[in-house]
What does this fold into?
Amino acid sequence: MSGNYFEAFDLPRKLAIDPKDLEKRFYSLSRQLHPDLRRTPSERAEAEEAMAILNDAYRVLRDPVARSEYLLKLEGFDTAQTSKDVPPELLEEVFELNMALEELQAGDTDVLEQLESTRQRFEGMRSELDTELRQKFNDWDSAGRTEDLAAVRSLLNRRKYIANLIVKTNVPDRI
Amino acid sequence: MFQIEFDNDKVVGIDLGTTNSLVAHMDLAKPEVMLGEDGDKLVPSVVSISTTGDTIVGNRARQELIDHPDRTIYSVKRLMGRGIADVQDELKLFPFHIAPDSESIIRVQLGERTFTPPEISAFILRQLKKNAEAALGAPVTKAVITVPAYFNDAQRQATRDAGRIAGLEVLRLVNEPTAAALAYGLDKRQEGVIAVYDLGGGTFDISILKLHEGIFEVLATNGDTHLGGDDIDNRLLRIALEDIQSEWSEDLSHIGEAVQTLRRDVIRAKEALSFQPAATIEFAWHGKHYRREITRELFESLIKDIVERTLGPCRACMKDAGVTPEQIDDVVLVGGSTRIPMVRSAVEVLFRARPRTELNPDEVVALGAAVQAGILSGTVVNQLLLDVTPLSLGIEIAGGVVSKIIHRNSTIPASASESFTTGVDGQTNVLIHVIQGERELAKDCRSLLRFDLKNIAPMPAGMARIEVRFLIDANGILNVTARDARTGKEQSMDVQPSYGLTVDQIEAIIDESIEHGDEDLQAAQVASSRVEADQILLAIDKARKSDAWQALPDAERESIIAAIRELQSVYHTDDHHAIGKAIETLNEITRGLAENMMNTAVNSALKGTKV
It folds into this structure.
């Protein structure tokens, strides 16, 4: 099993992938590679390795975010930005969220409603970002310009930041 | 390398349950459960050691539970792969007699002797093996065994160890709900998304699968390995014991014989309540009688929270699978406890679908295990199972925090590679702690194993680079290998499992049971070593006609022939260790030959796929 995940699936290196087609390829490759269909222990061991890689590849390619991170890495971009700096346009939102979480920790359950609406706002932002991302996916897939990938990189950074905020608003998991 | 299997070996499917166990096989195109000596399909998972040292399993042992409760054990599955600290809740409710020296491996006292949970499970497996051999008229040495989907690595290892102790080669551990889906899908030729709700004697599992043209893809699984019909029995039992204490002014809860009789009577009432609006617990003890009518209404109020505890994992599972109730085409019920009307209606409300119950919920898991056995031996074609790992795998990093490397619900086999280095100049070993679970801190998760990367060449801090590869195999069991990234050489390491038996301990157990006059087991061990010897000798015989054989240096050919002679000379002894050792030597010495021959075959197979 050499080459990258796109090659494993015999797919061009594109950001947009049709999930139905990907699934079909995954099933067909599984039928060729799966250790259950091998008869000797040594063949099984080989197949187990190949299947593990195929599964990893499928996991990455089926998820648009993991897939674009992977493609960015192949194209020489850095991995997700881990900066803790709050984007200026989110300063106020993040401040209010942290206040609400502190109040909740102190036992004030009145803020639950506020947290819920904050969560919904963040989820709205995330789905707007997803729309923008899809647009940029198409741009890069058709034109192959590095600046489109750079745009994807910054959209993903922003999306990651917002996704972390959504996790923070998930109250039942925190109590 | 030359250890091959033959397709004509019968592989059986085993459901090793908390309450009952079954063995099934593929009979032409259909899986079928095989009958036991007593004509029963279900073998109660009860084991008793008689005063003369004989092992009693199944229905006969159930009577021993009442006559000799101190020599008899049920629900041992609850102890599999657990340490003493994990089972404190269990010990309050179950009459397990735990030996005082139990720590990370529990030992159960049965009469004069003590046994580990895998040994006790092995007694059940050997009974099933015997039943299958009687039904098939041929020796059975290979099996697929089912485990709860939510079993962790240690619980899976313990199950595999039980198979090994019983003289069975465990070709695969299959998750119970997945097995049920296999039996169901094969029967109905169903396509689409199905949920399998499996409430057994001691464990609860929920799995959501996608069925498409013979592929069974598990999307997500969830569960609770501490929840089942036993808990319902214990609720009723407690009420009856309290009643009796106030009516008779007598506390029976410490008299094993009384508790086991009452438990049996309570279960009868519970089972009746699934079909009628009220049932009576009737219990007789030393001339006294206790009667108590339980209405379904009271029963439901007693078990409501138990039923509700199953719903959280169901919701989490749907979320992880990325499906809504509307997208689920069918719900399949598995396990005896799903006969309870309240359980059925809770499932119906949650999934907004009427559950399927055509297949017997007690048998469907064993039937599915037989289907998987058929897939592995090539008698069932075009069906393929793609299962997932139930729990995330992680390593402990600074501050006791978990860094996840394989996420839960990843399709298995799944792998991840991590690079490790040294922190101080001249450091020659690195200690790594592997855990399983979803929590953020290692102390809140399950410790799996610790391994020590050792004999690292001394060099400045941060210069060493050890690549560790974690592979969760198709059984859901972790395999770890390490390589020095600078030299490409295999890195030596010591692996210390946190729970469970080491290979040496299993060998010792097998020897010990033979010493205890267990001739069956000895015969089975010798027979299976001879089968293995036959296979390798036959394969090498074939190889000696190939070009690869001619290409070997004379010296290598001679030493292979010497190793063949050595194996032939011990073949007819009754010493399975000697046979095993000779096989190992021969296998080792023919590695080069095997690799040469395999390269051509495997390479062409893999290259064709571009993967």
